[in-house]
Amino acid sequence: LQEAGCFSVVLEAIPEPIATQVTQNLAIPTIGIGAGPYTDGQVLVLQDMLGLNTDFKPKFVRHFSPGAEVFTQGIQEFINSVNDGSFPNEEEFYQK
Q1: Least confident of 14-23, 53-62, 75-84
Q2: CA 67 to chain centre
Q3: If pLDDT is split at 50, 70 and 90, which confidence band does 46 have?
Q4: What confidence score (pLDDT) does residue 71 get?
Q5: Predicted model pTM
Q6: How far is 84 from 78, CA to CA, in rounded Å?
Q7: What is the spatial distance between Cα 3 and Cα 5, in angstroms, rounded to a whole number?
Q8: How far is the CA of 24 from the CAs of 3, 21, 68, 90, in angstroms?
Q9: For 32-35, which contacts have Cβ atoms below 8 Å and span 24 or more sequence positions?
Q10: Could you give the residue numbers annotated as active site?
Q11: Cis link prior to 29 (omega < 30° from 0)?
């Protein structure tokens, strides 16, 4: 791939020793996702990072935030505010 002109390579869900060896043998950067800490960089899907996907969590995913809980709480507060009539208030809509 390097010889074909690629500027980088993503190494996803491969054993760390292989990712390390590939990284050491390439001049272009390697980006790991589930390939261990010895690649040139790391990538993680935003929804996984923020904990939005609660039904499926691959081995290489770490939730850095309880995003699903935060979003669920925000949505429920919106629903409650609409239902109790407190949203929108006079400051939150155009009158003229």
Answers
A1: 53-62
A2: 11
A3: very high
A4: 92
A5: 0.74
A6: 10
A7: 5
A8: 15, 5, 38, 62
A9: 33/60, 34/58, 34/59, 34/60, 35/11, 35/60
A10: 12
A11: no
Residue 56 confidence class, pLDDT cut points 50, 70, 90: confident
Judge whether 13 and 60 are in contact, CB under 8 Å. yes
**CA angle at 39 for the pair 34 and 44, rounded to the nearest 5°:** 40
What element of type H or E holds 21? Answer: helix 16-25
Distance CA 40, CA 2 (A): 15
Q: Who's near 3: CB < 8 A, 6+ residues apart? A: none
Q: Which distant-in-sequence residues (6+ apart) come within 8 Å of 22 by Cβ?
A: 9, 11, 30
DSSP H or E segment with residue 76 = helix 67-84
Cβ atoms of residues 12 and 33 within 8 Å: yes
Can you read off the two tokens belonging to residue 66?
A: 């309880």
> Residue 61 corresponds to which tokens in the numbers above?
């995913």
